[in-house]
Amino acid sequence: MLPVDLDTIRLFLHVLAATVWVGGQITLAALVPALRLTGADVPKAAANAFNRVAWPAFALLVATGIWNVVAIGSVGASYQRTLWLKYALVAASGLTAWLHARADSRGRLAVFGALTGATALGALFVGLMLAG
Ligand code: HEM
Predict the structure, then answer these.
(1) CA separation for the pair 53, 51 (Å, rounded)
(2) Which of 23, 70, 114, 115 is the most buried (most CB within 10 A)?
């Protein structure tokens, strides 16, 4: 069997947090129509419950992301540029998720919801480019 080392733990925690942040958003969005059928306030209650795991997951992504950067050490210019793209996507995903949670109209809810989902997917994709 292959050994389990610190790199395995580092990537396990990073990917675990990514599954919650990205997969949770997709799952919640898929459930909203069914939740609406059970009551107008139910999607909001479900979103609040999701927020209680999503933000700790986001904090874990940033912490393990910094750990990744430290563990990788010196990198070439194209890796560095890809990393900057990832920082921008992560910042945009966090900011638009925060704006989505505070939106006071259906339009803002939809725009910031779509933006946080799209930028989270972008960060996931660029993360795999970095790992490749
Ligand atoms: C929305 C937030 C994020 C998502 C969805 C995400 C997702 C991922 C994924 C799926 C991987 C591939 C892991 C693998 O299979 O090897 C990865 C790798 C990586 N991520 Fe993230 N990440 C996020 C935030 C961050 C942050 C904030 C940083 C830096 C501060 C970061 C730095 C890295 C680095 C350097 C790698 C390469 C790790 C390696 O090759 O050992 N990530 N990310």
Answers:
(1) 5
(2) 115
